[in-house]
Fold each of these.
Amino acid sequence: MNGLLDAILAEDATAADFANLPVPQSYRAITLHRDEIGMFEGLHPAERDPRKSVHLDEVAVPEVGPGEALVAVMASSINYNTVWSAIFEPVPTFAFLQRYGRTSDLAARHDLPYHVIGSDLAGVVLRTGAGVTAWRPGDRVVAHCLHVELEGPDGHNDTMLDPAQRIWGYETNFGGLAELALVRANQLMPKPRHLTWEEAASPGLVNSTAYRQLLSRNGADMKAGDNVLIWGAAGGLGSYATQLVLAGGGFPVCVVSSSEKAELCRAMGARAVIDRSAEGYRFWRDGVQDQGESKRFGKRIRELTGGEDVDIVFEHPGRETFGTSVLVARKGGVVVTCASTSGYVHEFDNRYLWMNLKRIIGSHFANYREAWEANRLIAKGLIHPTVSKTYPLAEAAQGVYEVHDNLHQGKVAVLGLAPAEGLGVEDSQKREQHLPAVNRFRVLDSLCAEDAVQGAENPPYRGIQPTRPV
């Protein structure tokens, strides 16, 4: 590993140098263990502590198959599917690995008693399998998480429709929270040159997901001037949705859960922000949806938009918010949904949908073209990473815990082989142009921490309060 890291850090290393480097037999990885899938039995998902299930293990390097690439992972990040994996919710991921393992001899590599998780990476290609021509050892890359077979016809118009579509690092093994990772070559994209490893690793899943939901014809097909309601607008997914709406000429209405997250949305350029905690919205009472609260929420939206309802609702919380989302969308509007972090069973009053000709669109990650375009916006400096905090690999479990308990802003990054933060920048001039935006979420996080240490007697930034213990 030391020789590998030296080659990556050396500016003059060539493709031949990387091709000639010996690949280690094992590597460190964040894993889950199959024999622990019952450890949280009887506990509500909100009460499960992922720090108990997440391990740092030394695991064997997998064989590189046709069409695949072995990547030295410099950094990765935590996504909500990492949380689901770690709390074995809604089902243990080992069920995915077993099902996949039965499909072929090569796929059987994935069915192991441990699962290397993680669906983001930034790193360097070490080896490529037979048939790979677009990438070679030494290429600096990021990876999106769409894993497809494309043996049937259904996926050839939109690869997300491939019957064998899976999410890498969640429904497959050998994910990105590790020192090495195994990916399909068609998951790779160029690393944005002005970003550090941890910054480049953080947007992949969430930025691509938000791109498809909002901008793609497979999603809401947003146009300039659209009002877009964004739940969790300062979180890992919502922070990219907010940026994409602004970059596309839309008007985001950002919903957040605290004053410091409201400040972040304003710092990104949003003018309409609803702090649902401060304004006391409770969409459910005694297990029943309170439509009066949803209508009060809709009235607040119109106050912020100049009397207009929203054209698009960017949905991902699920059960807690879905009925309100359907109600507040304008006549003919669209609710585009992915994930369901507050519950999968959604309830809504169908009169508001059918009589007002609204639409519900399901959206799941993104196809390669959509992920490529989303990464291109990052590389052009139009969309910026939202890293607020970075952990070493040995402390990744703490990052999973913070995302599980919503104690974070933006994205939590994890270093793989990178020995420190701040490495990997190739275009320092471009970085300097965008540095305030690149550091936006870090600045808030450090100010929150400083405020907590100082006892919040004279907070260094008005309106910011600590969101987690320091």
Note: Confidence is low (pLDDT under 50) at residues 451-470.
Amino acid sequence: MHHLILALTVSPSPDPTGTLRPGLSEDQVTPGTWGFVLTAFIVVLTTFLIVDMVRRIRRVRYRAQVEEARLAAEAGPADSSTDEDGNAGPGAR
């Protein structure tokens, strides 16, 4: 184990200057301006889609609550031994 640690500490680090291999230009290895613009567009589009999805889910839940309340009101007065959630009240079996 000590030999591995010693080998890792003695191994030379990569060239810190960051030079490219011969025949490569920086445009060939980086996304550049268009890559940034497209990535930013995807992030903004995803954000709008998530906000729209949350709004639609909230609307569906609200409509379900309203429909539930309407059906409960049409069914007549609730039994006195149960509360709004249908749970039995105190003393009920």
Note: The first helix runs from residue 2 to 10.
Amino acid sequence: MYVRNEEEFGEAIREGKDGIELEGDLASKVKKLYKINLTLWSFCLVCLAVAIIALMQVPITGGTTGIVSLIVGTPAAAILGTEAAVTAVMIGVAGGGVGVLIKLRQAYRIETRKNGRIIVYLKN
């Protein structure tokens, strides 16, 4: 399954799809979510959860700009980088909550392909 954006990716993870293909900026940002060690990921997850909950409670009409302003001062933005943190929050919102990020890290593995593509597979 090929996804083009964070919303499609979040929905695919929530639904438990296997073989999710990503490319470009989205692929590089998702790779960052995997590269971070577990201790730092756990710390970032708390910050991301607060942002996800806030966005799910009060829809922001500013789109990505509103998300960036909500996240920019958090430790997650400092650790992951603002763009990767925003992507993580957008995936979480699209997937229905922070649980989709936990599922992504625990139940999926990534395989890097040529030209900046990655495929995210369910672990056996």
Note: The two ends are 18 Å apart (CA to CA).
Amino acid sequence: MPRLSPPVAFAVVAATFVWFLAASSAPSPLYVVYQETFAFSEFTLTTVFAVYVLALIAALLVAGSLSDHIGRKPVLLGAIGLEAVSLVLFLLADGVGWLLVARVVQGVATGAATATLPATLVDLAARGDRPERAGVVNGTAPLSGLAVGSLGCGLLVEYAPAPTRLVWALLLAGLVLAAVLVALIPETIDRRPGALASLRPRVGVPPRVRSGFAVIVPILLASWALAGLYLSLGGSVVAQVFGVRDHLVGGLTVVALVGTGAVTAFALRGRVPVTLLVPAAWLLAAGTVVSLAGVLTGVLALAAVGAVVAGLGFGSAAYATFGTMSTLAAPHERGELFAALYTLAYLAFSVPAMVAGVAATLGELRPTALVYGGVVAVLAVVAAVLGRRVPVPATGEPVPAPTRGS
């Protein structure tokens, strides 16, 4: 069977990464439609959102380092197969139960893929003598995928027929093509023993990179918690707080954050990632505060400006975190390391959003969004303050964070 060259394989894996995340964000503009069609509460809405993330985290914990043992391709092809099953379930969905099952299956598939795709990109970039590309793509692909899924689905829901069916059929067709191309990429890891033992649920950060990992925790929590608010309740806020029922606007709300983030992360390529931690935190804080002012006053334009500013911070944070981590781990540590990184990110992405869903169901959506955003802004300020203590040597390479008491 022919094999794709490392540069072509890199492009295939990057596109697959974007497609997986596009599928994961596609439900965001649809949540309002499903809510009206199946008559469920804000709590149920965020439950549908959260079960996906919790299933994703479970997959990361179980299969996060599996590709380090059996190879990248088997895990990627298995994840693509599961993702296809989830898209078929979405196509057939006629109630909340179907949505929950589809999101759980999708979460497992995306979790396995999310741990493996970044490691594969790092491997292929090294083979193609362009190792710096991996950090750029790992920082931009997830955000690009989230933006593409939200915008594309918003357009289809507003202007195309069968809004709850067509998007899943298109995503499924793209996934079939991805499966064919991924089957042709070269394997980048030699098989090694310990595959069954690696399935024991755990979060692992190699000891020699733990100090670098700790540096990125505060900004990771702030940025992904904000993304969780936009992707779970963003459409509802647009409809209920601002009174806008256009589904495209709901999709654009997500794009304002993650689309801006994707462009920002790409524009920052070549910059030393660790130097961006503090500016990213301040941008996140400022953008969130401006968005909260829009929610408080009911001015959608103000909230949109805040989302764009926060998106600048989100993209900077993504580049800073994933760019730093891409360079620190050895090949057989990357699967486990990215699993830990995404586990933390998705916990921040899901748990606060589910709590917000409970609060919005028991109370009102506007004060819930205000409190949620306020907590994110405070956390971003804390990340900015702590980030100033991280020294950067003259070479520009990131260095370990100061130890306690230093």
Note: The longest helix spans residues 96-127.
